[in-house]
From TrEMBL:
This is NAD kinase. Coiled coil: none annotated. Keywords: ATP-binding, Cytoplasm, Kinase, NAD, NADP, Nucleotide-binding, Transferase. One of its GO terms (biological process) is NADP+ biosynthetic process. One of its GO terms (cellular component) is cytoplasm. The lineage of its organism: Bacteria, Pseudomonadati, Pseudomonadota, Alphaproteobacteria, Rhodobacterales. Its cofactor is a divalent metal cation. It catalyses: NAD(+) + ATP = ADP + NADP(+) + H(+). Involved in the regulation of the intracellular balance of NAD and NADP, and is a key enzyme in the biosynthesis of NADP. Catalyzes specifically the phosphorylation on 2'-hydroxyl of the adenosine moiety of NAD to yield NADP. GO terms for molecular function: ATP binding; metal ion binding; NAD binding; NAD+ kinase activity. It is found in: Cytoplasm. Belongs to the NAD kinase family. Its main location: cytoplasm. Its EC number is 2.7.1.23.
Length: 251
């Protein structure tokens, strides 16, 4: 099997890269049947973004700290593990952010797109879904739209719901909502376009974040799911993403 090994910069990941390359060989991502990413969840997200033009599946082995998207690390029997692996297919979010100076930024997110206050004052956001205003004003520290794959990350920490991997829905979750104080967020069809308009942006500046990539001084952000981009992630049998999402709710 042709395997492309890639690794984060940490010493433990680089040591694993050396050991596995010596044992199984190492080809380029373009030649590979499987890409094996060595690191943590952050590096796995980076690996998926970097390989989105390829149809090659990505199998992660944990050489980081969290490892929700990763499999256990072992040097033995890797080819057998890859052949037996279960596949999950996820679609990213597309974020288009408009800045205060009129420029736009575009980014993809596999976990979530978040809007966060930049200064000491709470953000004020207007929320529209498919062009219809659903909330005139949300006063909060921020808000996010999460995919099922990302629903156990920032979304869950903000008390948003965990979504089954096969669910065709997105989670819209507020962070530290002040008005309306008891708003619990929303579940939205995967096909919708969510728009956030920043109210009073000069007084209450807001930044947008797509999987850790930040964009400052935004005045509007539109978020959609792109079904044409498909990321293939491999998991050991019995430890697939669907099982992990279910298990997380009982921990």
């Amino acid at each position: 099997m042709k395997i492309a090994f890639i690794a984060s910069r940490s010493d433990v990941a680089q040591d694993a890269l050396t050991a596995l390359s010596a044992r199984y060989g190492n080809v380029t991502r373009e030649e590979a049947e499987v890409i094996v990413a060595l690191g943590g969840d952050g590096f796995m997200l980076q690996a998926l973004h970097d390989s989105q033009e390829l149809s090659t599946p990505v199998y992660g082995m944990n050489r980081g700290t969290i490892g929700f998207l990763m499999n256990a690390y072992a040097e033995e029997d890797l080819v057998d593990r890859l052949r037996a692996a279960e596949e999950a297919v996820i679609n990213p979010l597309v974020m288009v952010a408009t800045h205060a100076n009129g420029e736009t930024s575009k980014a993809l997110a596999l976990n979530e797109v978040a809007l966060l206050r930049e200064g000491p004052q709470a953000a004020k956001l207007r929320i529209s879904v498919d062009g219809r205003v659903r909330m005139e004003e949300l006063v909060c520290d921020g808000a996010l739209v999460a995919t099922p794959a990302g629903s156990t990350a920032y979304n869950y920490s903000a008390h948003g719901p965990i979504l089954p991997i096969g669910a065709d829905v997105l989670a819209l979750t507020a962070m530290a909502a002040f008005r309306p104080r008891r708003w619990r967020g929303a579940l939205l069809p995967k096909t919708v376009t969510v728009r956030f308009d920043v109210l009073e942006p000069a007084k209450r500046p807001v930044m947008a974040d797509a999987d850790g990539n930040s964009y400052r001084d935004v005045v509007a952000v539109e978020i959609t799911s792109d079904p044409l981009i498909k990321h293939r992630i491999l998991f050991d049998p019995g430890h697939g993403l669907e099982e992990r999402l279910i298990s997380e709710q009982f921990n």
